[in-house]
Amino acid sequence: MSLLQIVAELWQSFGVTLQIFLVTLILSLPLGLLVSFGRMSGNPLLRYPVSAYISVMRGTPLMLQLIVVYFGPYYLFGISFGPAYRMTAVFIAFAVNYAAYFAEIFRSGIQSMPKGQYEAARLLGYSRSQTFFYIILPQVIKRILPSITNEVITLVKDTAFAFTLSVMEMFTKAKALAAGQTSILPLFVAGAFYYIFNYAVAYLFAYGEKKLDYYQ
In terms of Cα–Cα distance, which of 195, 193, 198 is closest to 177? Predict the structure, then answer.
């Protein structure tokens, strides 16, 4: 198989990788923000379960979480969704895993804001929600963007774990081609795909960070 044929084969599977990446971001970022509110809640009935969720998600392998999400309904409740559930299980496992990481990033950013800003906003007549979304959140996003960028780059590479549920994303396809052709070239091509994609993601986030730089 020629290099161009390998690139064409991997390009088709790259669509699955991209789909996992985008769906995970769309779901996990807002979910992470909500989880961070629970983590900072003054109500222990909410704070402790949320803290336990974050601890479990960050302390156990993503591969194990994929297996639990896919096989759990059957072994716990006797419910079988069939092979069509595989992609949905990948989305769910990735979203809840990355939401835990994003939640801690959001929490650290929110708690780093000076309390004087909340007091000043209250004196100016802002409600709590207006204060957060108009004053606090834009500053938090600027502060946490480098950490978010690192997690997003990790997410690009972690999409390869979808092979756990036999989802044919790009790296799984590359391994199949390498085994079939008895050549390591498909793996190098897949590595090039990941590098280019990560470079583009890092560039976009760096551009956004510059746009949010109030001091330039």
Answer: 193
Distance in angstroms (rounded) separating the CA atoms of residues 170 and 154? 16
Alpha-carbon span 100 to 92, nearest angstrom: 13
Which of 162, 38, 27 is closest to 98 using CA atoms? 27
Residue 180: both structure tokens together: 């079939």
Cα separation, 103 vs 64, in Å, equals: 20
Alpha carbons 63 and 68: distance in angstroms, whole number: 9
d(CA 191, CA 158): 13
DSSP 113: S
Residue in the structure block whose two tokens are 């946490």: 144
Length of the chain: 216
- Strand, helix or coil for residue 167: coil
d(C-alpha 130, C-alpha 122), whole Å: 10
List the one residue out of 190, 189, 187, 199 whose CA is nearest residue 3.
189
- For the stretch 140-173, pLDDT in tens is 988 899 999 999 999 999 999 999 998 999 999 9
The pTM (predicted TM-score) of the whole model is 0.91
Inter-residue contact 24 to 95 (CB < 8 Å): yes
Q: Please, what are the domains in the chain?
A: 3-211 (1.10.3720.10)
